[in-house]
């Protein structure tokens, strides 16, 4: 499976509308994603990971997915997806719902995966909200569904678990994904530079403890005064970093072997010794 990771960057104070950024992202999908099976974008690229004051204005109505349509931020990305014929994980957007969730909020941090025809084939609402009472916990509902899915061709062959950014700190989520057959953890993020070493460590930890590939796309640039960490990466089931980006806007192109998970688990069958 050939994977392209687009580590998008944008500058503090840049006057870039959702439409303009979506078009720029679509152009990157066309140029960097061509010839790949799976393309991954970062978390909340259309709204800004830490730009919570803009989330409501930049939110997207995903109820249109039920009618076979896409929200404005994803329309150009879907067009590019059809052109390159890949599966595109669109990172995540701020989803806006008409009715409130259990905590009375109308916003969610939601990922949408598009098939090669530009149609949604999987969605995931972020379970663990970052902010310690502010930011996401204050403004967003928490997702409650663990999502493990078989992606369509050409990204088929390995079963994929979906999560987002802060989820990475909660290993029990990945154990549950493992028990549902996950072989690859795909993680879009908006992780800050201040804790980038945690990011790098935890990516390898999730790979090693679950003997899964980890495919993680972070953001570059600055969100609401917060410097983003970059360092998107692909880690193999043995914990080896196959590729890692720097701090700026960058694209990674990585090929992973479909049989690597099975070989790792057979050669070092640690998972068979689980007792709890």
TrEMBL record:
An example molecular function term from Gene Ontology annotations: hydrolase activity
CDD domains, A to Z: nitrilase_5
SUPFAM superfamilies tied to this protein: Carbon-nitrogen hydrolase
The entry's keywords: Hydrolase
Pfam families: CN_hydrolase
Keyword Hydrolase: yes
CN hydrolase domain ranges (all copies): 1-258
Family annotation (PANTHER family): DEAMINATED GLUTATHIONE AMIDASE (PTHR23088:SF27), NITRILASE-RELATED (PTHR23088)
Family: Belongs to the carbon-nitrogen hydrolase superfamily. NIT1/NIT2 family.
Name of this chain's protein: Putative amidohydrolase
